């Protein structure tokens, strides 16, 4: 996405982000349903002992995005899992010009693989 997005003006980036944020796709699901409850708890409450804040504090209580933070509701389980477990490689932005996604680095590193799978499962079933 960076290869395309870096060529857009700030106004165009904002317009594209708002367009995608306002979409309401049907959830694709497909993730293990037995992980959803744990993922919901992590999304809503975070993991204080691991210094992981609630995902909802940035992405919104319904995971539909908030301000500059992207919508996560209905996203593919495998996509979320890959992004979080490979954050340094997958974040898709110019490391020379950090944006607000840089805040996710320490959060992604503090989540265990099982916790990432749970959060990804929860998000994959949200509308």
UniProtKB/TrEMBL annotation:
It holds the Pfam family Cytochrom_C. Gene3D superfamilies: Cytochrome c-like domain. Signal peptide: none annotated. The keyword Nucleotide-binding does not apply. Keywords: Electron transport, Heme, Iron, Metal-binding, Transport. Residues 34-127 form the Cytochrome c domain. The keyword Lipid metabolism does not apply. One of its GO terms (molecular function) is electron transfer activity. PANTHER family: CBB3-TYPE CYTOCHROME C OXIDASE SUBUNIT FIXP (PTHR33751), CYTOCHROME C4 (PTHR33751:SF9). This is Cytochrome c-552. The gene is cyc1_9.
């Amino acid at each position: 996405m960076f290869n395309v997005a870096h060529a857009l003006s700030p106004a165009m980036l904002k317009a594209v982000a708002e367009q995608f944020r306002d979409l309401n796709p049907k959830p694709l699901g497909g993730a293990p349903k037995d992980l959803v409850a744990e993922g919901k708890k992590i999304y809503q409450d975070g993991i204080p002992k691991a210094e992981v804040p609630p995902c909802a504090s940035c992405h919104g209580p319904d995971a539909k995005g908030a301000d500059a933070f992207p919508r996560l509701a209905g996203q593919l389980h495998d996509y979320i899992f890959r992004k979080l477990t490979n954050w340094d490689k997958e974040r898709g932005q110019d490391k020379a010009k950090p944006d607000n996604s840089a805040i996710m680095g320490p959060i992604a590193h503090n989540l265990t693989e099982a916790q990432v799978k749970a959060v990804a499962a929860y998000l994959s079933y949200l509308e």
